[in-house]
Amino acid sequence: MKQYEKLQALGQELKDSHQGPMHVLDVGAGHGAEEYSPFFAEIADHYVGVDPDEDIIQNKWIDERHHMPAEDFAKKHEAAVISGESQNFDLATAIYVWEHLPNPTEFLSSVAEVLRPGGTLLCVTPNGLHPFGLGSKVLAKFDLTDKVLHKLRPDEIDHYHFPVVATQNTPKGVKKAAMEAGFSKAEVTLHDEPEVFMPYLPQRLHFLPKIYSKVISLLRLKSLSGTLIIKLTK
Question: What is the dihedral of CA 70, 72, 76, 78, to 10 degrees?
């Protein structure tokens, strides 16, 4: 099962167990959200998107758009809840957002503020123990990320790029940040899908992620899988 299929399965499970209208928030509903937005639009009675990237304006699947960081939205939303103009969310998603966060705990605290008690946050992020995650950290530390991406994905970085910081994107780091942010439960699933990393490599090197995946499978090193699928409960 691919990562977005697993994400959708988690979303459907929450929908099936939920009573009443389903209010969904997508934090990071700009660039790349078309991969999963149609599904969450289908299960949501009201689907809200937040993103500092202006591409959020083009997301046709969401009902309500907020072109701003999650922390700013949390403050705005709190005022709307107090005034009775809005209500807190049952489900939030943050897909490939975590690796861009300099302070995951602060971000998670903001998302927790707009979730109802028992609400859920679903995230997908590269595993910081995978070569891609480790490489991202090294490049970020020496300020080489943009130079390397210009070589590998020039069209993307010219159109869209947020710096990769890759803090606490390991199972242990995720659970620590979640508890500090006030979530009551943190579940992390290790997922390995070589195709996720192929676009970052020249065509002639596309075989490398597949070989890596086979090696860690043979050696039973699941902790070094490529991505983390995260489910946090408030």
Answer: 70
Integer Cα distance of 230 and 141 in angstroms: 25
Helix axes 104-113, 70-82, angle to 10 degrees: 20
The structure's pTM equals 0.92
DSSP E strands in 30-73: the ranges are: 46-50, 64-66
Which tokens belong to 157? 């970085």
Domain spanning 3-233 has what CATH number? 3.40.50.150
168 DSSP β-pair partners: none
DSSP state for residue 94 in the 8-state scheme: E
Domain edges within the chain: 3-233
Contact (CB, 8 A) for 198 and 206: yes
- The pair of three-digit structure tokens given for residue 128, joined into one six-digit string: 């910081």
Question: pLDDT tens for residues 113-135?
Answer: 999 999 999 999 999 999 988 88
Per-residue b/e over 109-125, b at no fewer than 16 CB within 10 Å?
bbbbbbbeeebbbbbbb
